[in-house]
Amino acid sequence: MNYTWDLSILYTGFDDPEFSKDIASLENALGEMVKFADSADRLGHRDLLDGYISINEKITSLANKLIIFSNLRYSANTKDTDAASNLGRLMGMLSAIAAPSAKLSKIIAGYDDLEEIISESEKLSEHRYLLLNIKRDSKYLLADGEETVFAKMNISGASAWSDLQSSLTSSVSVDYDGKKIPLSSARNLAYDKDPTVRRNAYEAELKCYDSIKDAVAFALNSIKLQVLSECELRGYESPLAKTLYTSRMRKETLDALISAMEEYMPVFRKYLRAKAKALGHEGGLPWYDLFAPMGKNDKTYTVEDAKNYLLGIFGKFDTELHDMVKCAFENGWIDFYPREGKVGGAFDCGVPSASESRVLTNFDGAFSDIVTLAHELGHSFHDRQVFKNSVLNQDYSMPVAETASTFNEVLVMNEAISAAKDDSEKLALIEGQLMDACQIICDIYSRYTFENSVFESRPGEFMSADRLSELMLAAQKKAYGEGLDESFMHPYMWLCKGHYYSGSLSFYNFPYAFGGLFARGLYSKYKKEGAAFVETYKTMLRTTALSDIEECAAVAGVDLTKREFWCEGLQTIADEIEEFCALVDR
């Protein structure tokens, strides 16, 4: 078994002749797009639509392959200058078609007979959602030349600031126990069974941010100002309105979700105080014990253990999921262990050209690492479903992006809890699930609150690192309330979370709450419907790239605008909190 991923499905390296060949092919395809746009006014409606789909399929296939390879190389080693250079080069190449793309989109948006033409062609009908969204999105397009300028400026703007944050947080060293360790390794110590290790690692982590906080604050300020400027130029009411629009999600759905979360916050604070009491703290729980393990579940796992554990659970759910996970472990899909230069956290990246995925984790042997693998491989399973669509019909929006991943987590945790041998093991597993649930409800709510406050503040002030920390602490107090010890919180959560550092993707926080609660609702349906649900589930995942969120959920019989649906999911967590409190009392 390989412990680093195999990228040869893309290229053997930047010196691979195929990489150079595809660069040249992409340059030619981009040139074709420019010529096609120049002749667009002379084309009939059907010919233009057919040509538009054809040239975009070619560009998307080539660009995806080249960019994915460069991104994966960079993520595995942020000191890989070739990867960084090629990413910049590719972004520059693609910026050349911003104007012709905008021109073609405006022409298509002006077709009064668009739906009629689509209905007359099987190929166009396959891309109906894409084409109708072009018409819908046209009101937010800039003038052709402005789109080109914006695309080029973004390379040295938000994109560059994002790379800076990634580079600094992946390369900074933490002075811990007389040696220097990567930030990702220090953060992993939050799960250690020794309370002294947890607290010392927390304090060492906070201290390490002093050397990079000012630079990262500049990055965050610059990115958020660019987002605000773009929203103003394009006509979006706000960054949140833009996020909801590009997510194909109605405000009523977000309002129902947030309202339900706020109602259940006191229940999560009850859990936190119960955990604090069980760990010997008076009052709220200090941040360094948020991830403290409880009960008897201190077993460490090898990668091989993780593989066998997941296969045993997923095999009961669906053969396709089982076989995909087996392939992922055995065929170099996963980069497992932390190392210097490797980015922290975990992610999945679909590779459409190979109908596979690649997964990055920082595996440390805890049970939580198995859950993380389940989560990321859920993304891979989602990828697998949308790969059944055409290459232009494979993108899905942020909120549904966390559905399959969290569904996998629920499968794993519920199976593990039901198989617990005694109260001590059951406590460990339930607490592990509640720890994650607290993250996707309380911590996500704090991140959502923080990002709102940053966008509100940025027009009138440049926020220093200290000011950003103040906003972060205020958001944490609003979310966690008396559940946390205010003397030991985490003022630098704005710095270490890469989700804030994107010029094109704001509010990557509430989708985790959405995915977590949506997955719990889907799991309840699975328990009621059994095997018959599995195909509905896969169809729904495939539909995420072909419809708005509310329509996608309707495939599974769910109305997302109803607050009651979200409360049902939250109540299942509340029931687990009651069981947790009873277990710690015993």
Helix content, binned percent: 55-70%
Beta-strand residue fraction: under 5%
List the strand order in the largest sheet. Answer: 3-5-4
Number of strands: 5
Q: Compute the number of helices.
A: 26
Question: Low-confidence spans: pLDDT under 50, at least 5 residues?
Answer: none
Shape: globular
Largest beta sheet, briefly? Answer: 3 strands, mixed
CA-CA gap between termini? 43 Å
Question: Could you characterize what this model shows?
Answer:
The chain has a 3-stranded mixed sheet, sandwiched between helices. A two-stranded antiparallel sheet has the order 1-2. The protein has 586 residues and is mostly helical. The protein has helices at residues 17-38, 45-76, 81-95, 98-109, 114-119, 122-126, 128-137, 144-155, 158-171, 183-188, 195-208, 213-234, 239-246, 251-278, 303-317, 319-330, 367-386, 398-401, 403-418, 423-457, 465-480, 493-496, 510-529, 532-543, 549-555, 563-585, and strands at 173-176, 179-182, 334-335, 347-351, 356-360. Strand 4 and strand 5 (356-360) form a beta hairpin. The chain starts with 16 loop residues before the first helix and ends with a helix. The chain contains 26 helices and 5 strands. 45% of the residues are buried. Helices cover 67% and strands 3% of the residues. The model has no long low-confidence stretch (mean pLDDT 94).
